[in-house]
Amino acid sequence: MARYIGPVCKLCRREEQKLFLKGSKCNSPKCPIEKRGYPPGQHGNTRRFKQSDYGVQLREKQKVRRIYGLLEQQFRNTFNAAIRQKGITSEILLQLLERRLDNIVYRLGFAPSRKSARQLVRHGHFMVNERMVNVPSFMLKAGDVVQVREKSKKMEMIHASMKRMREGKLVPWLDLDKAAMKGALLNIPGRADIPLDANESLIVELYSK
Known about the structure:
- The protein is α+β, with helices and mostly antiparallel strands.
- The protein has two domains: 8-97, Ribosomal protein S4/S9, N-terminal domain (Ribosomal Protein S4 Delta 41, Chain A, domain 1); 100-187, Structural Genomics Hypothetical 15.5 Kd Protein In mrcA-pckA Intergenic Region, Chain A.
- It has helices spanning 8-15, 32-35, 53-68, 72-83, 89-98, 101-107, 114-122, 156-163, 201-207, and strands at residues 126-128, 131-132, 145-148, 174-177, 182-185.
- The protein has a five-stranded antiparallel beta sheet with strand order 2-1-3-5-4, covered by helices on one side.
- A hairpin with a 4-residue loop joins strand 4 and strand 5.
- The longest helix has 16 residues, at 53-68.
């Protein structure tokens, strides 16, 4: 399966904000954007120009795509799926991204980043409704239960990530049972319940051209 294997900190610098792609490092002084909060490259700290409308829309799309860890075709397929559903396309797009299994695993605190969550899912460490699922893009429905497989409950990565899960950090549309190492998708989140600093309407404008 195709995936991005380059330096992820450069992605944050390109968008000039933290995308939280490296777990705990993003909240530490070691985060490169703390010292070099400008685009990478020889002229990243000196070249500044006014972006066109297309440039603004493109940067917003790239930012959201990179936050969720999708390649261009995967992101475009998700957008096409959002178009086919009734409702506000921009909101449905975010709902589809949030309902991915790898994102739910990350939101529940079982992995320090979406990239790590994707790897854990691919290696078969999670079950959905008591059935093993190893597809990161698996789309959850309201009421679905995600749990760590019995043989994986002693994994250090999962325990370390759960220890960093602070009180009040869990989004309201998820429920977590730390003792049983499982969580549930209570309902499909509305835009106000999705903690994402993005203007998703710009993505719709970009793809609608």
